[in-house]
Design brief:
The chain has a single domain, classed as MFS general substrate transporter like domains (Growth Hormone, Chain: A). With 416 residues, the protein is mainly alpha-helical.
Length: 416
């Protein structure tokens, strides 16, 4: 698509991004409140790891089977219905919390699971929508701006979540999910989402999942990028899931300081997203991806050596600003290359497979993260994650099909 064929695309896409911001910020505020509730009630790395695991498993296990529906069904409904279901479960959790003095852990875990299932449908839907809503030469920048929206959510949500967690009963705070769903859906109804060519064949989940995997593996270089990113997530996410415990247990900080770390990391992500959103038309996008992994590895590795006091905490916060800047350079740029590598009517199935591969690595790491952190100390996981990220950056450089992929993609030779 060109800008001449899409004359009003900017107004449409910014309305869409606004709807994503409104649903995202309220959902994240509730998510952070739940994590801090679990941290305060249990002070256990194992419980936090299990909660994070429940949040990731649906993405890992269901994504290949969600993709075929994304390719065939109405995109707007695939965004609206999961928000409605998540809001219904938020109301149910709020009622139980009102009637009881505490939230049963099993019910909190079910709530996290439902929210993750909703996201499993929404993430590939959003990712497959963007290439149909913007001109091709603007896609990298719009992906960067979507990253800015997500980062802004991550900046505002921890601060507001911590503030509201301190003054608002948890059973009422959960209802923010309902408010966000109403606001976001209201705006989304005004957005025009182009529907691509209809696929008449009925959904056959195993065949369609195999199609997505076959198409991905046939794309030389992108398959290797996907595998390296999956290994990176396996090594990085266990430590990332324990940020609140790192602050409150190792540095002896407060809930407010745990929120501050999340905010500064997200400020860095916002800065990285802004760089991509406004200056994102690079000739070769693989090099920024490679360097972002290397630099994140350095920042994470240094975090593992910091002293467990307030001085160490302030260094930790500073390092997380730099780490945050790096995140969009491997997540946003790789997503744009994926979107430009396949026709829109195939993207749902391919993105479903990619999201599954990205997500399944994290739960495998998290199974061991909690008990390992309780055994050797949470700070050691940051050192392990840092060394792993460095190794992934080196692997990208040493793999010729990865190093040259974007240059071949922009010459139309990515499948060769």
């Amino acid at each position: 698509m060109t800008e001449q064929l899409m004359p009003h695309w900017r107004r449409n896409i910014y309305l869409f991004l606004t709807s994503q911001f409104l649903t995202g910020i309220t959902s994240m505020m509730v998510q952070y409140a739940i994590i801090w509730y679990l941290t305060k009630q249990t002070n256990s790395a194992t419980v936090l790891s299990f909660a994070t695991l429940l949040g990731m498993l649906p993405m890992a296990l269901l994504s290949p089977f969600v993709g075929p529906f994304v390719d065939r069904y109405n995109k707007k409904l695939l965004l609206i219905v999961p928000d409605v279901i998540a809001a219904i479960f938020a109301i149910a959790l709020s009622i139980v919390g009102t009637l009881a003095s505490t939230f049963p852990l099993w019910l909190v875990f079910i709530s996290l699971l439902v929210r993750s299932i909703a996201q499993t449908f929404q993430m590939p839907t959003v990712q497959s929508i963007l290439p149909t809503m913007v001109p091709a030469d603007e896609l990298t920048k719009i992906n960067g701006q979507l990253g800015m929206i997500q980062s802004a959510n991550l900046i505002i949500a921890p601060a507001l979540g911590a503030f509201l967690f301190a003054i608002v009963p948890m059973n009422w705070l959960i209802l923010l999910d309902v408010v966000g769903a109403v606001l976001g859906i209201s705006l989304l109804l005004l957005v025009k989402i182009p529907e691509h060519r209809v696929i008449d064949e009925p959904v056959q989940v195993w065949r369609d999942a195999k199609f997505g995997l076959t198409q991905l593996r046939a794309t030389k270089g992108l398959w290797a990028i996907t595998m390296i990113r999956a290994i990176f997530m396996f090594l990085y996410m266990p430590a990332a899931s324990l940020y609140p415990l790192m602050t409150m247990q190792y540095f002896h900080g407060t809930v407010g300081q745990a929120g501050l770390v999340e905010v500064v990391f997200s400020v860095g992500m916002l800065g990285g997203g802004a760089i991509i959103g406004f200056f994102g038309n690079w000739r070769d996008r693989v090099l920024p991806m490679l360097w972002s992994m290397v630099l994140m590895g350095i920042m994470f590795g240094i975090s593992g050596f910091l002293p467990g006091n307030q001085t160490g905490f302030y260094w930790f916060a500073g390092l997380n600003i730099l780490s945050g800047i790096m995140v969009p350079f491997y997540s946003t740029l790789s997503m744009t290359m994926i979107q430009q590598s396949y026709p829109p009517e195939h993207l749902g199935r391919i993105l479903g497979m990619i999201n599954s591969l990205m997500s399944i690595a994290s739960p495998i790491g998290l199974i061991f993260a909690g008990p390992l952190a309780d055994l050797i100390g949470v700070e050691k996981l940051f050192l392990i994650g840092g060394l792993g990220a460095l190794a992934c950056g080196v692997a990208m450089w040493l793999t010729p099909s990865v190093r040259t992929y974007d240059l071949r993609l922009q010459r139309g030779q990515s499948r060769s």
